[in-house]
Amino acid sequence: AGSRAQEEQIGFYDRDADHALARQISMEAELREAVERGEFINFYQPKIDLKTGKLAGAEALVRWRHPQRGLIQPTEFVPVLERSGLVTQVGRNVMQRAMEDWRAWHDAGLKPPQIAVNVAPAQFRCDSLFDDIERALNTAEASLRPLSIEVTESGLVADQRRVVDILNRVRELDVPVAIDDFGTGYSSLAYLVTLPVDVLKIDRSFVVKMTQDANYMGMVQTIVQLAHTLELKVVAEGIETEEEAKFLKLLRCEQGQGYLYGRPLPAEEFARLLQH
Ligand code: C2E
Ligand code: MG
Ligand code: MG
Ligand code: MG
């Protein structure tokens, strides 16, 4: 019976459509407990200035340290957090923790870079977002611009006036805003270009195909040009090869993030990276 139970546990996160709903419900219950027990941790992935090769920032990426199943990646549970509304609380904690880590590194003399935190669409609709950002900033050293946020297109499409209002207020705090996974959503370009944002993050799917397919190369080039016309900076995600990096540099893409430069690391390991 023991091994049977174990099998069921291992199969828990399989993508078997038959039991998808049941799994989501039980996962939701587990996630609720995980929030209470504080089982989420931040990893940090470096962002590199493509021109100088120096560290230019980091992205905070959440992981679930499950007591039995070990480290679980966000693609497995963030969608469930979003559907259940729990993402608001988890996202708030990720941001607060990011600024606590930033503060600790700063106090240790490590010169931490700006840390980007993903903000889910639900957080963006939540009234406390602005206060959460202010509180997190106060934990760190607001004048050193410790924080930026990343929002996907889907977080930006509903309620245009409200979105623009929030973006303006966030940017007044000197917190830059990036449109994450740019190019993968369904929103109109005409709308996106009117938004008060600072950065476009080109989705990994474009970067992967760029060096194989001239159409993708053309799209990346067009996105970079568009961004620069609008005086936005460009970050490319998912850079894995020198060839990809070379092309992005030629296109004058400002920053890059990807396994070529470093995988997401636990806070202690990221601190070690800052020491060197
Ligand atoms: P994202 O915001 O687009 O983050 C980038 C993802 O690409 C990360 O996956 C990162 O590990 C991965 N990545 C970066 N470079 C490479 C590369 O060279 N190769 C490959 N194969 N992958 C690369 P991760 O950490 O699994 O996160 C997945 C997604 O989960 C994130 O995509 C983001 O949408 C979401 N997420 C993560 N943390 C949070 C969070 O705190 N809040 C919210 N709302 N969403 C989060
Ligand atoms: Mg992101
Ligand atoms: Mg992204
Ligand atoms: Mg992405």
UniProtKB/TrEMBL annotation:
Source superkingdom: Bacteria
Sequence ranges assigned to domain EAL in this UniProt record: 24-276
Protein name in the entry: EAL domain-containing protein
